[in-house]
Amino acid sequence: MQVNMDEASEGWMIEDDMPEPEPQAPAGPPPWKVLIVDDDVDVHVVTKFSLSNAHFMGRRLSFLHAYSGEEALAVLRNHDDVALVLLDVIMETADAGLKVARRIRDELGNSLVRVVLRTGQPGQALEHSIILDYDINDFWCKTDLTTRKLFTTVIASLRGYHSLQEAQQRIARAEAALRAVHGAASEALAALRAGQGWSGEVRLGEPPLPLRLQVAPGAEPAPFTEAGQFTVAGQFTVAGQLTVAGQSAASGRLPDDA
Fold first, then answer.
1. Helix/strand/coil for 147
2. pLDDT at residue 196 above 70?
3. From residue 141, how far is each of 117, 127, 128, 223, 236 by CA, in Å?
4. Buried-most residue among 3, 80, 101, 229 (CB within 10 A)?
5. Which residues have CB under 8 Å from 240's CB, separation 6+?
6. pLDDT tens digit sequence for 90-128
7. To 10 degrees, the CA torsion angle through 70, 71, 77, 79?
8. Which residues pair with 116 in a beta bridge?
9. Distance of CA 28 to the CA centre of its chain
10. HSE of 239, CA atoms in CB hemisphere, 13 A
11. Backbone angles phi, psi at 115, to 5 degrees
12. In a 3-state reduction of DSSP, which class is residue 11?
């Protein structure tokens, strides 16, 4: 505590020492979102307790809850990054969970989320036909799903979700690169047809590497010439001539220390 004289009021002003703000810990990776869908509250409680200490790839689990098929679909509409749905078969109707599983794929168009069906009455559902007819990833009777089996099922589902997510991202990057190359080729061809030159850059590969191109109209028999520079870590260059007759020549050079 500090005591200072306030010259303006000729009085005393007491100042409390403010504690230094604690540095915030760096944010960790986001948790895996797991949606529990069941009309029995106890199932939610037991499932969350059984998986409370589960981690995968350094990420904990975060639980969302729904107590009917419609609630489950509403949650999935608002959270497009749910990794796993633990889905009860029999809720408001005897096949409510099956309808939700089908609508997840067909109506929501969500092919990534892993769906594990659970039922308390296995005699009312033909497991083989359900696995074949519905795009689900596992099917368990609740009485058979011990804590160890539940943990194993959840981790396997998260691993599958992660692999599919990475594959989808790679496909998206490849499609974007293909569109960029196609767009550059179209622009270059349009410029050549108009008797003009063109220059631009496209990125290819993973990680993406820059490919700089320059195209200019040429004299017969070659309607145009092409020269480009392809750089890998700034060391390798290639340049060439291209003719419509299909004859091409290219030269490249690698430095002595490559």
1. helix
2. yes
3. 8, 10, 13, 71, 60
4. 101
5. 226, 227, 228, 248, 249, 250, 251
6. 999 989 999 999 999 999 999 999 999 999 876 655 677
7. -160
8. 86, 138
9. 17
10. 5
11. -120, 120
12. strand
Task: Report if residue 258 sits inside a domain.
Answer: no
Element (DSSP H or E) covering residue 130: helix 127-133
Place of tokens 């500090």: 2
- Could you tell me if residue 205 is inside a domain? yes
Tokens 């050549």: give the residue: 192
Q: How far is CA 210 from the centre of its chain?
A: 25
Cα(220)–Cα(223) distance, rounded to whole angstroms?
6
How many angstroms separate the CA atoms of 191 and 244, rounded?
A: 16
Q: Are residues 45 and 104 in the same domain?
A: yes
- Output 120 or 6, whichever has higher pLDDT: 120
Among the candidates 115, 149, 168, a domain finishes at: 168
Q: Which amino acid is at 199?
A: S
What is this structure's pTM? 0.65
Q: Which helix (H) or strand (E) holds 105?
A: helix 96-106
Helix ranges, 134-255 (H): 147-193
